[in-house]
Amino acid sequence: MAYRETSRVRERKQATRTNILTNALALLNEVGFGGLQMATLAQRCSVATGTLYRYFPSKEDLCTAVFEHATEIEIAQVQQHLEAPETSADGLPAADRIADALTTFAKRALRAPVTAWALIAEPVEPAVVAARLRYRERYAGLFAQAIQQGIRDKTLPPQDSALSSRALVGAIAEALIGPLAHKSEFDPNQAITNSVRFCLQAITASSYTDSDTKG
Amino acid sequence: MAYRETSRVRERKQATRTNILTNALALLNEVGFGGLQMATLAQRCSVATGTLYRYFPSKEDLCTAVFEHATEIEIAQVQQHLEAPETSADGLPAADRIADALTTFAKRALRAPVTAWALIAEPVEPAVVAARLRYRERYAGLFAQAIQQGIRDKTLPPQDSALSSRALVGAIAEALIGPLAHKSEFDPNQAITNSVRFCLQAITASSYTDSDTKG
């Protein structure tokens, strides 16, 4: 009779996987992707290194899974602030929800700078760069929805939401690279305020007109 | 007597290196980093594959050098538009120079989309990601200078130029990822206009105020 995985086996595997990712995320917050060692992680998880490799065949696989795990947590935070309350008619205007979401993103990043650097900027293997691209699409999709709502209810000026939302994601991520990489040169609260202001001005301001941009 | 490299040997080596990088850049524009093959490149350069490896010991080394070579060309274009003419008192205001520089960057990207994707977004080896970080600092430094000039001559509102300049670089690069990755969904000229407008509004608009960003 062929081996069939029982639901109990599946649950146990899932629990081990979750344990590994939780410990990996804690380790990431200390040493970044560059310092993540399979042997150290195995020790933290109280599993054999061989077990770790059964779940994640390579360090690149592990890093990708850790990236996705960590970013899902950040995405959920952003999404919570962006989503319009469906039960109430007097929700915050789209611009304010976007400001809240960006502020939350920036605050969380500067509170966990090693993890934020790892997720946003650290030189990583191609599979993790590919995951960064996918998740930036996810972020942009969420911001695009909020921008569209703002345009519909006329609290935001007309704009290409697909383009503005990507630019927002790029702007907030890159703005934080300064404070993350050169901590001493930036006051964290000022950095958060200024990054969010940059983004909000970009999507709320009346049109900048310059004939050169039409060329 | 120990071998000493004569200036003629050095010149010949430099010429070979330049020949390799020029051909690599042409190849990059066809296939991106993912499609760059040492054997194909050697053939294009009319050198043995072994020779190629003497100049670039690994594909990662080659890709990093190609990235730097290509980005130096783009940086020079941006710099040319950003620099204030020193011989004339009636130069363009900083905001217009920044708009010109961003427009040039975006136009050149959409005109060479495979190269632009490779430079901006393609999943690449860690050494190339590290080069991306370094060059984004270079771009940001150039924009920061222009923003500071704008603040000094009061054509731009006061702002943290180190932060705004990074956000600009992030915004323009990420905005172009949409048109580069999903070409059919974007009109290139509209994408250029809208990306530049986003950036200009961010640095020129009067302050967006929202108590939540101060929290």
UniProtKB/TrEMBL annotation, chains A, B:
* InterPro entries registered for this protein in UniProt: Homeodomain-like_sf (IPR009057), HTH-type_TetR-like_transc_reg (IPR050109), HTH_TetR (IPR001647), Tet_transcr_reg_TetR-rel_C_sf (IPR036271)
Q: Which GO terms describe its molecular function?
A: DNA-binding transcription factor activity; transcription cis-regulatory region binding
Which ranges does the entry annotate as DNA-binding region? 37-56
Domain HTH tetR-type, first and last residues per copy? 14-74
- Which Pfam families does the record cross-reference, listed alphabetically? TetR_N
Matches recorded under SUPFAM superfamilies: Homeodomain-like, Tetracyclin repressor-like, C-terminal domain
Give the keywords, sorted: DNA-binding
Name listed for the protein in its UniProt record: TetR/AcrR family transcriptional regulator
